[in-house]
Task: structure prediction
Amino acid sequence: MADRRIDFNELRKRVRRRGLLRALAEGPPRPPAPEPGPPPAPSSEPEFEWRVDDDPAPLVEPDAQETIEFKVDPQVTERLRGCRISCAAVITAVADLPALEVNGKVIEVALIRITVRRPEGDAESCIRQHVPPEIRGVVGPGAGVMVLAHDHERSVAAIDWTATGEWIGAKLTFPTAHEQYDWPPREEWPEPGAIEIHDGNGHREELDERRGEWNLASAGLVSLTPLRSRVDQRDEWQIALQLGNGSTVEIVDRVPLLVLARLRPGNESRVGTPIDVLVSSDGEVAVDWEATLRQPELRSTPIS
Result:
């Protein structure tokens, strides 16, 4: 098959005219034939195609043998096909999730709760989807985005990052792989106004136990240093903190991406940022990332 180049100017026009999902589905227009001829052979490409941009790589790639063989739920594809109504939405809550490590690749995702401004009236939705790294540090309650709402399922919508980027005048990068998408039941949605950290493999239970038994304290960020290790779908970092008594401690912890985007927006850490920590009776220190995200200086700024 000959290499087919993408005309990004034409793609941009189609996004404005039809929305991201339909623009990707319809493909680039065929050039006019130089002279009349027989009708072209039927295309071997599928009617609906997703083209995938490269997702920013994690610090450590997972072992392909340890990733899950993942088959996309046909309902996800059908729902995405039905997302054709372009409209604005407001993010009401966000939850950082461990990355999806499927089919030998990593997809960073979050739960994003939104109020969609549908033509017939507002509707609530919550989608699991990738958040572009360029705006990850400001995506939170109150931020505005463009979405593609489902034709008739009011609780289903997907964030249109291309249209959102055009709206705010920024170039956003993101994957479009089906595996990232899901619409969880309402009991799994983050609470309105919150930036939550969802976790598994006993990490949440361990945090809840420490919250009940250890003492809450505040520390100042000294440095964040990446490590070449990855545990339970999150990268590990070496974190230096200055405690209230002036002493400095160093710990190794998995840092959620929504936190990392706020504490280290570039290559420099925001030294001095207050960090909520839990301290045991033996002096052991652990970070409470979810509590840290409640700090006023770490709350999101609306995109719009």
About this structure: Confidence is low (pLDDT under 50) at residues 1-8, 19-56, 64-68.
